[in-house]
Design brief:
Blueprint (H helix, E strand, L loop, with lengths): L3 H13 L12 E6 L2 E7 L8 H13 L8 E4 L13 H7 L4 E4 L11 H8 L3 E4 L3 H7 L1 H9 L3 E8 L4 E3 L11 H12 L3 E5 H7 L16 E5 L18 E4 L5 H9 L3 E4 L6 H9 L5 E4 L3 H9 L5 E6 L9 E2 L15 E9 L2 E8 L4
Parallel strand pairs: 3-4, 4-5, 6-12, 6-13, 8-9, 8-12, 9-10, 10-11
Antiparallel strand pairs: 1-2, 1-3, 7-14, 13-16, 15-16
Helix pairs in contact: 3-4
Length: 366
């Protein structure tokens, strides 16, 4: 018989399939089991509906009939919701199915839930077990939890540099510092994010599509977000081809440009010409984007680092040296003392083809 922790790992694997695809809702996984047999599986649907529990229950009924659920155990990677929103509460569905037990790693911080789901289940006579898989679930749901805690999206900054920290030659040539295997990994990271952020300068210089070009995952492309204060990008930019690009700029100062970009399929969101990185990220968060993958030049990277807004740093290094005069990954941060420098803790290092990928997490300041 498998342990609760082992089955919860299965549910977390289901949840990972929805990363970057569930909008403002967390990507949740659910496994329904009885007598060691998996009856049903489900994850939060694309866009946030339907919820994992209702999908897993429906899967079980389709395969084995309603009576098979009586006395079953539901493994859910987050406390089931207990409030009416666009769909009825998942607790009601679990109670109606007559499951005997619900296992979840921790309570949902959403104030509409926040223990109410567990209480409703227990009031109906369902045994609730809290804790299995907590560390892994918190890591998976990190963007959602951070959004609930402080209203800010989780920011991953991706850099691809030479051994001496350059992102391009003095003339601006940057394709390609890293190889095709590293670029495929970047596309996978894009697919796991809600939005991909870059600057207007990068769009002008490189004309990136900012989509996912992995076979079978094209539909997982994140929402392109461009920080372009003066609305400089052209209406034929490749990033606009998806039809869902969000451009944050001073439309009040450039109304004709805003109109032209919107006619090309973009949504132009007003931000002040002097808006800083935290203001931009807060504005993006109001659109329901919990995880942002940032790809851009030195200007964007420096602004995010300077504002202490980078939660995770993914640094690809190619075996190339460009020397003095090459364009560096970071502009001046104005740091005069080591004590004032932003600090990151290394999480992992991996060799990807001829390149190296290092993942770092921000060290929280006291």
């Amino acid at each position: 018989m498998r342990t609760d922790a082992e089955v919860m790992r299965q549910a977390l694997a289901m949840a990972r399939r929805g990363q970057g695809r569930t909008g403002a809702n967390p990507s949740v996984g659910c496994i329904i089991m009885r007598n060691g047999r998996v009856l049903g599986r489900g994850r939060t649907g694309d866009g946030g509906r339907p919820h994992a529990e209702t999908t897993a229950l429906s899967d079980a009924v389709t395969r084995y009939g309603k009576d098979a659920l009586h006395g079953a155990t539901a493994y859910v990677t987050l406390e089931p919701c207990a409030h009416y929103g666009k769909t009825p509460p998942c607790t009601d569905a679990l109670i109606a199915a007559k499951v005997a037990r619900v296992v979840a790693p921790f309570s949902d911080p959403d104030p509409r839930v926040a223990g109410n789901g567990f209480a409703a289940l227990e009031a109906a006579g369902i045994t609730v077990t809290i804790g299995p898989g907590e560390a892994e679930a918190r890591a998976l749901l990190g963007p959602y939890l951070r959004m609930r805690k402080n209203g800010r999206a989780t920011v991953t900054l991706k850099l691809a540099t030479t051994l001496d920290g350059a992102i391009a030659t003095a003339s601006g040539e940057s394709q390609w510092i890293t190889g095709p295997m590293a670029r495929r990994r970047v596309h996978l990271m894009r697919a796991q994010s809600d939005a991909i952020l870059t600057g207007g300068g990068t769009v002008l210089a490189d004309d990136p599509a900012l989509d996912v070009r992995l076979a079978g995952m094209e539909a997982d492309s994140p929402v392109p977000v461009i920080a372009d204060r003066r609305l400089r990008i052209p209406t034929n930019a490749r990033v606009l081809a998806q039809g869902n690009a969000m451009i944050y700029g001073d439309r009040a100062a450039h109304p004709e440009k805003a109109t032209a970009l919107e006619a090309a399929g973009a949504v132009v969101v007003q931000i002040a010409s002097d808006a800083d990185a935290p203001t931009l990220l807060a504005a993006i968060a109001t659109r329901g984007h919990a995880s942002i993958f940032c790809e851009g030049g030195a200007t964007l990277a420096t602004a995010l680092i300077r504002a202490d807004c980078v939660d995770r740093l993914v640094w690809f290094t190619g075996g190339i040296i460009l020397g003095g005069g090459a364009r560096q990954a970071m502009d001046a941060l104005g740091i005069n003392a080591l004590a004032d420098a932003p600090r990151f803790r290394q999480v992992s290092t991996e060799t990807i083809g001829p390149d190296t990928m290092s993942v770092w997490r921000r060290v929280e300041k006291d």
